[in-house]
Design a protein that fits this description.
heterodimer; A: 3 helical TM bundles of succinate and fumarate reductases; about 70% helix; globular; B: alpha+beta; Ubiquitin-like (UB roll); Fumarate Reductase Iron-sulfur Protein, Chain B, domain 2; five-stranded mixed beta sheet; two-stranded antiparallel ribbon; 8 helices
Chain lengths: ~260, ~250
């Protein structure tokens, strides 16, 4: 629809191959039909959520090398960059997964907002839900905004409250003699600025809140939860939230208070 | 007992509606909540005023006709209880009680506290049945069913379709209702031939009626007067994914 309007306005020729013709691919048609149902969209959110959660955990483990000597994290960053096309496949894959997650969230929350247009005069009592569950949309938006800032900060090097590494990343010589960008110094200098450290701490607490509901909720959405395992999944969600909160906040806090660096 | 009621009054589907304060007098604690409203209505009629319109039928907690959001909780403060089985001993003299209709786009208000739950009927018509040639009832125990399956089917079949799940869901989602109707047949051999089509058709009908999407708050489970567990929803999710991706 939006594509049609744009094409009409700008007199563009039809885009070849868009929207894709799925008539030759019955499996793709099935998936496309499924994700358009409310349960299908939720399942897409759950599946992409698993991928994003695994990324968050691996990303955290990689970053925790900041507590080791500079050689470790600089070598790790160099290794990731040396993957070349592999790195770009991972980046594009993550972007596609992220967009699918957001699309499912928009579809779900729009349907829900339209379904409940009139509020109760006497505020409806919350009997079972949690703070994390009620704030999923808002925590998701905050995480997305933080993600944009985080990419501009450390990946692209466009912004920094201290301005220390913007446009000029120092070099570090690995033990094998290779000169690589000094990620260690960039992170240390970045988090020595209180504003940066506090931004990261708050954003990661919000992320942990988001994951504490998401990591438990996905088992229900994908149909794996039952009476026996329900409590286990709730605890798992809380554990994931706690791990992400402690792991990701430990780095800016340790650097801000001079424990590392 | 004397109570200060705050009741939603709405003359018809197109009226904007408003909360109205009504004082209920001479209420005894052994009255049911609906008998209390009957008493209030008698007084209103004697005063020449319009009585409060509300849904009710069996008054035994089995028909699913009564509703009411009472002080922010569907069917009131007692868990596992319909409004008709709620008694005034759950309240104290002088209490203020807010009484509102179910709120959901799929449940438009007809008048005062009555809502149109026809959307549930249309979801049922989409597949909440089994197609069989009926005749004489077959002999008891001629079709052996595991005790665990029979229990699970019965738990789901206890749904009376009152709509408390929708009214309580922050998303206005009907997942617990639809899941109960899908599961009670899905657990039994008679429900197997149409199991895949049933879940797909009923979910499509649910979406078309404008119910919201479940985001696992479990508010539905907390207010369900028949205490239908939310893992019924997980089972429906699994059925739908299997049906639409694999079958």
């Amino acid at each position: 629809m939006a594509g049609e309007i744009l094409r009409h306005w700008y007199h563009l020729p039809p885009f070849p191959g868009f929207p894709p013709d799925l008539s030759q691919y019955p499996d793709m048609q099935r998936i496309a039909r499924t994700v358009q149902t409310s349960i299908g969209a939720k399942s897409l959110m759950a599946v992409t959520g698993i991928a994003l959660l695994l990324f968050v955990l691996v990303h955290m483990l990689g970053n925790l090398q900041i507590f080791s000597e500079p050689e470790k994290i600089n070598g790790y960053a160099h290794f990731l960059h040396s993957l070349g096309p592999g790195l770009w496949i991972a980046r594009i894959g993550l972007l596609v997964i992220f967009v699918a997650h957001v699309w499912a969230a928009v579809r779900t929350s729009r349907a829900s907002r339209e379904a409940r247009q009139v509020d109760y005069a006497y505020k409806k009592k919350d009997l079972a839900t949690s703070y994390a569950a009620r704030t999923m949309l808002m925590s998701g938006i905050i995480v997305a905004l933080f993600l944009a800032y985080h990419l501009m900060h450390f990946t692209l090097g466009w912004v920094d409250f201290a301005g220390s590494h913007v446009g000029k990343l120092p070099l570090y010589t690995l033990q094998d003699g290779t000169e690589v960008p000094d990620v260690y110094t960039m992170v240390i200098q970045g988090f020595q600025h209180p504003l940066t450290a506090i931004t990261y701490v708050i954003a990661n607490l919000v992320l942990a809140l988001h994951l504490s509901h998401g990591a438990a909720s996905l088992f229900q959405t994908l149909g794996l939860r039952n009476r026996e395992n329900a409590a286990t999944f709730t605890k798992l969600g809380l554990a994931v939230g706690a791990i992400v909160a402690i792991g990701n906040c430990s780095m800016p806090l340790a650097i801000l208070f001079g424990i590392v660096g | 007992m004397k109570l200060s009621l705050h009741v939603w009054r709405q003359a018809g589907p197109n009226d904007t509606g408003r909360m109205e304060q009504i004082t209920a007098t001479d209420i005894t604690e052994d009255m049911s909540f609906l008998e209390m409203l009957d008493k209030v209505n008698e007084d209103l009629i004697n005063e020449g005023k319009e009585p409060i319109a509300f849904d009710h039928d069996c008054r035994e907690g089995i028909c699913g006709m009564c509703s009411l959001m009472i002080n922010g909780v569907a069917h009131g403060p007692e868990s596992g209880t319909t409004t008709c089985q709620l008694h005034m001993r759950s309240f104290r003299d002088g209490d203020a009680i807010y009484i509102e209709p179910w709120r959901s786009r799929a449940f438009p208000v007809i008048r005062d506290l009555m809502v149109d739950r026809g959307s549930f009927d249309r979801v049922m018509q989409a597949g909440g049945y089994i197609s069989v040639n009926t005749g004489n009832a077959q002999d008891a125990n001629s079709l052996p069913i595991k005790k665990a399956d029979a229990d699970a089917a019965f738990d789901a079949a206890a749904c009376i379709g009152c709509g408390a799940c929708v009214a309580s869901c922050p998303n206005g989602s009907a997942m617990l209702f639809v899941a109960a109707k899908v599961s009670h047949l899905g657990h039994l051999p008679q429900g197997q031939p149409e199991r895949s089509k049933r879940v797909q058709d009923m979910v499509a009908a649910m979406d078309a009626e404008g119910f919201g999407a479940c985001s696992n708050h479990y508010e539905c489970e907390a207010v369900c007067p028949k205490e239908i567990p939310a893992d019924t929803i997980a089972r429906m999710n699994r059925d739908l994914l299997k049906a639409s991706l694999c079958d």
